[in-house]
Amino acid sequence: MRRGRKKRLAAICIFVVSIYILLVWMFEFPSVAHIPSIRVWWDEEYSACKRHVAHQQSLPENQRAPLYLSVSFSGRLGNWMYAYASLYGLAKRTGRKIYLQPENQVSGYFNIPKNMNVEPICPEVLIEPRPAAYTPEFESLPHGVNVTIKGYMQSWKYFRKEYDADIKKQYKLRDDIMEKGREALKKFKSKISRKFDLLISVHIRRQDKLDWGAYLKGFRAAPVSYAKNAQNYMRQYFKDKAVQFLVMSDDYEWSSKHLKAEDTAVMEPNDKYVDLAVLTMCNHSIITVGTFGWWGAYLAGGHTVFFQDYAAKGSRFDQETEREDFYLPQWIGMS
Ligand SMILES: *[C@@H]1O[C@H](CO)[C@@H](O)[C@H](O)[C@H]1NC(C)=O
Ligand SMILES: *[C@@H]1O[C@H](CO)[C@@H](O)[C@H](O)[C@H]1NC(C)=O
Q: Which site from 70, 77, 269, 294 is most exposed, i.e. has the minimal number of CB atoms within 10 Å?
């Protein structure tokens, strides 16, 4: 008798614990709780969106509200420039409007349209598989819903072919920033006594690529030998011209110590937008790693050399980057 009762108690305990685990699993893990037919039943906001979208889709095409495309990530100026350019290209191709989060670093500094602050409701979120690679699936977005891409969208393939001119026009910096850039350049030139025909920027990004986290992820800072090789290549390539190098870096001391030469001077850092203005005013570009230098080179529109050993082979950073998607085909990779 007593043994029977103990057994029953144990069975009840196991039952209760199992139900508890099942519930936790259903509501904590996307696998079950996010199956649409289940989610509609417990998530009020979700089911309201389902109704909203169904209603929109039932309307004749010319009465539907516009569809939006947006992007979600956290990053700096270069990341934002890449993301906006890619959004622009994809939005054009798929007939959507763009929404830019308030924390974006591009609107207000360039010649890009205002009124991109209508926040899309009920967006379907797509997860980008790799931040510096092209995802062809994004060219055919889900029909009839707003879409937010969670990711960085760092590939020229999203915009370059058809919208290169648009992007360059939109990425004209504000006049006052350009003016500051011209002043900074004038100051730089006043310290150089030699005459030259071509100004070539050397953008060296080092600081945040040196810490342990970045190293473990696979980032590799460019060594002095890369900068020297790239400079020699440029001297050779433009051998009938007098070439002057302008080094810009987040590590002014390192650059001054290692790169100063008769035809090479280091510029003191300015505000990042002013630095970008200066990069775009150079004739040709040498870059190391990162999107800021990338945009300086893209907008300068000259001959460009990039550091091809930016990642340790097989590292996470290596896997996240598709070289052909990220760097322009005509850019030269060097070690
Ligand atoms: C997309 O977002 C806009 C702006 O918030 C909204 O007017 C529209 O109804 C949404 N469309 C869908 C299908 O959810
Ligand atoms: C180099 O760039 C400057 C400033 O943009 C420009 O005025 C000059 O014509 C360029 N030189 C050559 C040889 O392309």
A: 269
